[in-house]
Amino acid sequence: SADDTARIVAHMNDDHADAVLAYARHFGGRAQATAATLSTLDPGGMDLVVTEPSGDHAVRIDFAAPLADAAAAHTTLVRMAKEAASANSADTPATTHPAAAATAKAAAALA
């Protein structure tokens, strides 16, 4: 429903901006994205406004399967967020990944 869509869009932008940015980078092919906002979603996919150094761009990301309801949207968005986060962290060299840097710093402190 329109109410579900508005609620999901607001929730994603307010509480999961990092996931929306990960969607843009991984599924939208926008590796240079510095910010992204979910503008709408429908059973077939989601529309983002992606900010890159060259400006703002509209990006459409299709879902692997059509969404039947709000519960399916939740399941799909969580799965996609996990996939995008995993892929984006795999693209980050271990020496510059924040977790790797923290681990190295902790190991050095113990040495």
Point out poorly predicted stretches.
93-109
Strand content: 15-25%
Shape field: globular
Average pLDDT level = 84
Span between termini: 57 Å
**Count of alpha and pi helical runs:** 4
Give the strand line-up of the largest sheet. Answer: 1-2-3
Helix-and-strand structural type: alpha+beta
Q: What's the count of strands? A: 3
Main sheet characteristics:
3 strands, antiparallel
Helix content: 40-55%
Spell the H/E element sequence. Answer: HHEEEHH
Rg, nearest Å: 16 Å
Textual characterization of the structure:
This protein is an alpha+beta fold and 111 residues long. Helices cover 52% and strands 22% of the residues. It has 4 helices and 3 strands. The protein has helices at 2-15, 17-26, 70-90, 98-110, and strands at 35-42, 45-52, 55-62. A 3-stranded antiparallel beta sheet has the order 1-2-3. Helix 1 (2-15) packs across helix 2 (17-26). The longest helix is centred in the last third of the chain and has 21 residues, at 70-90. It starts with a helix and ends with a helix. 20% of the residues are buried. Residues 93-109 have low confidence and may be disordered.
Task: Please outline the helices and strands.
Blueprint: H1 2-15, H2 17-26, E1 35-42, E2 45-52, E3 55-62, H3 70-90, H4 98-110
Antiparallel strand pairs: 1-2, 2-3
Helix pairs in contact: 1-2, 2-3
